[in-house]
Specification:
This protein is α+β, with helices and mostly antiparallel strands and 100 residues long. The protein is built from three helices and five strands; from the N terminus they run βαββββαα. It has a domain of 35 residues. Strand 3 and strand 4 form a beta hairpin. It comes from Puniceispirillum marinum (strain IMCC1322).
């Protein structure tokens, strides 16, 4: 195993402490890190961005449902998204709760 000398750039006091404790820094192991490749991200407005990621394979496409163009944290517009009438069903189901 090869070692990198990280101690020589440290102050003398720190070098002596590190040497006394047997400190050695190893090089990163080979073939254990995920593949880092280019992918395409499609924003909600259809625009595309190229980026690098460990997700998927080279050339894969990610289509976003929410991005900085539509998320309230970035747009400042807060709205209730009622997918499938869930809010209406909730209101109908619990309309009489607490009236007794």
């Amino acid at each position: 195993m090869r070692h990198i000398d990280l101690i020589s750039g440290l102050p003398e006091e720190t070098q002596s402490l590190a040497a006394a404790s047997g400190f050695k820094e190893s090089i990163m192991k080979k073939d254990i890190h995920p593949d880092y490749h280019e992918i395409t991200v499609v924003m909600t407005d259809g625009s595309e961005r190229k980026t690098r990621s460990t997700m998927g394979k080279e050339g894969d496409v990610i289509k976003l449902d929410i991005d900085p163009l539509t998320h309230p944290a970035w747009t400042g517009q807060h709205r209730i998204v009622d997918s499938g009438g869930q809010v209406a069903r909730f209101n109908k189901r619990f309309a009489g709760l607490g009236t007794k």
